[in-house]
Amino acid sequence: MCGIIGYCGHRPAVPIVLEGLEHLEYRGYDSAGVGYVLNSELQVVRAKGKLKNLSEKFQQERNALTVTCAIGHTRWATHGVPEERNAHPHLSNSKRLAIVHNGIIENYLEIREELLQKSYRFASDTDSEVLVNLIEDRLAEEHDLLHALSAALQLAHGAYAICLLDRDDPNKLYAARLSAPLIFGRGIGENFIASDIPAFLAYTRDVIFLEDGDILVADSQNYTLWRSSDLNEIQRPAQQIQWNMQAAQKGGYRHFMLKEIFEQPKVISDALSGRLDDGRVLLPELDALPVPKRLHIIACGTSFHAGLWGQHLIEDWARIPVQVEIASEFRYKERLLLDPEQDMVLVISQSGETADTLAALRMAKELHVPTLGLCNVLGSSMAREAGAVLYTQAGPEISVASTKAMTSQMIMLACLALYYGRRSLTLADDDIRRHLERLQRLPLMLETALPEMHSMARQLARKYAQAKSFFYLGRGHCFSLALEGALKLKELSYIHAEGYAAGEMKHGPIALIDPSFPTFVLAPRDDLYEKIKSNIVEIQSRQGQIIVLTNAESDLHSVDIWRIPALQGPLTAFLLLPCLQLFSYEMADYLGKDVDQPRNLAKSVTVE
Ligand code: AGP
């Protein structure tokens, strides 16, 4: 997820674009750049790292203050590590066009090959540079940039929100969107185009939300909207934004955590994007590696819980024995019984910078064991040091409590299980197809269910907010979710909570149950449902209060039943997990805690 902005108007454009990028920095911040036309030449100024590195470069670019049209970009790398050469804007070969792009062009390698055959050359590893040269290539065939842009977008598959500058028409912005947000801000004698409203909210509240397949052409006074496919002119209604700036950065949500919980349907789609083809999973990153005889998953915190959940699928679908270990335990073992011929170590980390997990990765490498990283941050230490890396493509996760990242990790682990299941022939193609169909149904199922889940979470939080301790119980793949639910409650509301294997209650913990010690039970309708019901009865007989999260028609009484949509098998986890996240969110918010920055926590634990 990147941030793009374009400005054309009566003011110096570069300061406005830089200011707009500051308000988009939450969307991605590993590099940034600005493009504008000066003395009939397209200028591009870019910098790696935080936006301030780019702003400092403009201390020397005083002439840039004379231009009144510019585009800008703050990057969350998806293709090409965060280096200046991969930062946007990207120029076409003739240096006539400059583009800023948010999204993923899935068939960019194929297009790149075709352009290379036509003697185009590329300075970056990005799909965006391919797109701007595809537009240039079409320009040779079409009679104007609008037609060339339309022709190019018919060939590019995937998601894009773009803004384009033309050296030969320097005071005009060209923009287009497909499956990535783009908003037109209509000012007086000035116009804006951006990924999100905060970029220009200080200047105008009069906005038009572009729809998929729209092309916008605007200068300082006018704008026109076209349908990309046939270049028919279209109209879109303008809206007045009532939000304040802070609310706007959170998309109108109270907290980044809530926004990121509600982003999970899109995160599932993005994680699957470009990885499914005709009933099978494509993970070319792993094709050259052997299928491991044993898999060791090493991680911390929520990532550890994701790994614990993935163990069930990888063992069940791919028949690979999996050992899941906490990184801080793994790294201090006296002896690592790892065999480079048999084993693979999979490290999971949203940030890719967690010290304990990095240490585990380095130990495995010292033993020449094949290593795989599952990360969310391109160019992170783990991504660079692992032998192979899979990216979760969840976009920046701003809230310290991890939510959408865990969902994306679990999607990738499900894909890994299906990928290895096919390579090892432990899964029939029909079974793979059935699992993939369920995975592809998840985004809509979750999108539809989230509002009701949120309402139920808010209702239950008000009933249980005074609890001093909570049990979270689950069996099978729900045991890992019980651990995660307990972690979320602890780290957000500061209420003590324990995740437990439900079958373990009778071995001691049930002694804690009384009316003031509630239990949250994960009870999906699966082979273990009858067993978990007996745990519920045991707790009830000791006057314990119970929340039962289930997709079954429940014959349970005097408990709080929280019903979710029915989905067979372990993929129901993608409907259970958001409930756990929302319950903890509402408990913390109701208790007045600092939801996005809980006390004592850091987003990435880069030290021991
Ligand atoms: C999750 O809510 C916590 N913030 C924490 O447990 C986190 O999952 C853990 O520190 C691992 O972080 P990583 O995924 O970036 O390695």
Taking Cα atoms only, what radius of gyration do you get, to the nearest Å? 26 Å
Structural class: alpha/beta
Helical content (DSSP H or I, runs of 4+)? 25-40%
CATH class descriptor of the largest domain: Alpha Beta
**Stretches with pLDDT under 50, minimum 5 residues:** none
**End-to-end C-alpha gap:** 30 Å
Biggest sheet layout: 8 strands, antiparallel
CATH superfamily of the largest domain: Aminohydrolase, N-terminal nucleophile (Ntn) domain
Rounded mean pLDDT is 94
Strand segment count? 27
Ligands, deduplicated: 2-deoxy-2-amino glucitol-6-phosphate
The domain tally reads 3
Name the beta content range.
15-25%
CATH topology call of the largest domain: Glutamine Phosphoribosylpyrophosphate, subunit 1, domain 1
Number of separate helices: 17
In order across it, which strands form the biggest sheet? 3-2-4-1-10-9-11-15
- Any guess at the CATH architecture of the largest domain? 4-Layer Sandwich
Task: Give a structural overview.
- This protein has 608 residues and is α/β, with parallel strands linked by helices.
- The protein has 3 domains: 2-246, Aminohydrolase, N-terminal nucleophile (Ntn) domain (Glutamine Phosphoribosylpyrophosphate, subunit 1, domain 1), CATH 3.60.20.10; 250-427, Rossmann fold (3-Layer(aba) Sandwich), CATH 3.40.50.10490; 449-595, Rossmann fold.
- The protein contains 17 helices and 27 strands.
- Helix 3 crosses helix 4 and helix 8 runs parallel beside helix 13.
- The chain is globular, with a radius of gyration of 26 Å.
- It starts with a strand and ends in an 18-residue tail after the last helix.
- The model has no long low-confidence stretch (mean pLDDT 94).
- Bound molecules: 2-deoxy-2-amino glucitol-6-phosphate.
